[in-house]
Structure to design on (362 residues):
C-alpha cells in the first residue's frame, strides 16, 4: 500500500526531532554541571579599612580583612585572616585563616567556623556551636610591654645625657674660663656649693609662684617656671664637668675631662631609680658651684677695681703706653751725685804742668 506524501513528511520530522533530542541529552551528560550561584573564592578581594565598620554580608567572599580602627563583622566567607588593630570583631560566617583583635573583644556566634586561631587582647566569647580548629586565647599581649617600658626609660636617660653633653660643649666653646672657675669652686668649696644649691632649689620655684600670683609679675613667674627645667639641666651639666675635671686635672685637656665626666654620668643614667637620685643631687650641687664661682669672680673683680688695675682676668696683656709729649721733663737731680746725663768737663789746660801727688817708693 503506497505511503501518502503527508504521512511521509510527518515521519521525517519525527525522526529529526528524535535525533536532536538524543544529541542534546548526550551533550548534557558529558559536559560538567553548571555551578550554582554563590561566592567565587578565586575572585575574592582583600578588604582594608583605616577607620570605620567593615561588613562582609552573607553569601559574599573576601580575602584578607584588616581594620586599623573600627569594627569588623563577617557573616560571609573570609578566605584569609581577619585582623582588627583597635576595635571589636564579630564572626558569624566562615574564616579560613585566624581571627586577631589587637585591642578589642572577639565574639564567635553559633554559626561561626574558623580554621585558624582566635587571639584577642581582651575577652573572647565563643557561643555553643561555633567551630574553631586552632587555639582560642584571650588577654594576649601582642607587644612586649615591659621591654618597651624599659626601653622608654633607657631612651629618656640617654636623651638627658646627650642634652647635657651638648650643653657642656657649648659652654666650653663660649666660656672656657668660666668652666674652670666652676670646677675650681666645686673642688675647693663642696659644702658651700651644696648649701647654695639647696637654697636655689627651694627659692627659685617659690619666687616663680609668688611672682605668678601678681598681675605684673605673671610673665616673670611663668617664664621662670618654664625655665626651671633648663636651669636644673645646667646645674646637672656643671656637676658632670666638675667630676671630669677632678679626675683630669689641669693642665690636661678640658675636652678629655668633659668626656670622662660624661662617660661616668651616662653609666649612672642607665641604672633605673639610681639615675633619678643622681640627676637631683647633681643639679643641686651644680647650681651651688655655679653660684660660688660667680661670687668669687665678682669679688675678684671688685678688688681689682679698688686697686686701680682692672686686670683681673688671667692672660691680660697690657698695651704699650703712648709716647711722651714733646715738652721735656727734667730729670731729678741730687746734690750727692753728679748728673750723669752730661759728660764730665775736662780740666782746663794752662802752661804749667799739672801737679800730681807725690808717691814714696821707700
Amino acid at each position: 500500500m503506497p505511503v501518502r506524501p503527508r504521512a511521509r513528511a510527518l515521519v521525517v520530522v519525527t525522526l529529526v526531532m528524535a535525533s536532536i533530542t538524543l544529541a542534546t541529552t548526550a551533550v548534557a551528560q558529558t559536559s560538567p554541571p553548571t555551578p550554582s550561584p554563590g561566592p567565587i573564592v578565586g575572585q575574592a578581594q582583600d578588604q582594608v579599612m583605616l577607620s570605620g565598620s567593615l561588613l562582609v554580608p552573607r553569601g559574599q567572599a573576601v580575602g584578607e580583612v584588616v581594620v586599623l580602627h573600627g569594627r569588623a563583622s563577617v557573616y560571609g566567607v573570609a578566605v584569609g585572616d581577619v585582623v582588627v588593630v583597635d576595635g571589636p570583631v564579630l564572626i558569624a560566617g566562615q574564616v579560613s585563616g585566624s581571627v586577631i583583635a589587637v585591642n578589642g573583644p572577639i565574639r564567635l556566634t553559633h554559626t561561626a567556623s574558623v580554621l585558624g586561631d582566635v587571639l584577642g587582647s581582651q575577652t573572647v566569647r565563643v557561643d555553643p556551636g561555633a567551630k574553631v580548629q586552632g587555639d582560642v586565647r584571650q588577654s594576649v599581649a601582642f607587644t612586649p610591654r615591659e621591654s618597651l617600658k624599659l626601653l622608654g626609660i633607657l631612651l629618656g636617660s640617654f636623651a638627658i645625657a646627650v642634652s647635657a653633653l651638648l650643653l657642656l660643649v657649648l659652654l666650653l666653646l663660649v666660656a672656657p674660663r668660666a668652666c674652670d672657675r666652676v670646677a675650681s669652686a666645686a673642688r675647693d668649696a663642696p659644702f658651700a656649693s651644696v648649701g647654695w644649691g639647696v637654697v636655689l632649689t627651694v627659692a627659685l620655684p617659690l619666687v616663680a609662684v609668688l611672682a605668678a600670683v601678681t598681675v605684673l609679675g605673671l610673665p616673670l613667674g611663668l617664664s621662670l617656671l618654664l625655665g626651671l627645667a633648663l636651669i636644673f639641666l645646667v646645674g646637672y651639666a656643671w656637676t658632670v664637668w666638675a667630676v671630669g675635671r677632678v679626675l683630669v686635672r689641669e693642665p690636661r685637656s678640658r675636652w678629655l675631662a668633659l668626656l670622662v665626666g660624661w662617660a661616668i654620668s651616662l653609666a649612672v643614667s642607665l641604672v633605673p631609680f639610681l639615675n633619678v637620685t643622681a640627676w637631683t643631687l647633681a643639679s643641686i650641687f651644680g647650681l651651688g658651684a655655679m653660684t660660688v664661682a660667680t661670687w668669687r669672680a665678682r669679688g675678684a673683680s671688685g678688688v681689682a677695681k679698688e686697686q686701680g688695675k682692672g686686670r683681673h682676668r688671667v692672660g691680660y696683656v697690657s698695651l704699650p703706653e703712648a709716647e711722651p709729649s714733646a715738652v721735656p721733663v727734667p730729670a731729678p737731680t741730687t746734690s750727692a751725685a753728679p748728673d750723669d746725663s752730661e759728660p764730665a768737663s775736662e780740666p782746663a789746660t794752662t802752661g804749667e804742668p799739672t801737679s800730681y801727688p807725690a808717691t814714696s817708693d821707700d
Q: What stands out?
A: The chain has two domains: 41-137, 146-302. The helical segments are 5-30, 145-174, 176-188, 190-213, 218-247, 254-269, 274-306. The first strand starts at residue 47 and ends at 56. The mean pLDDT is 77.
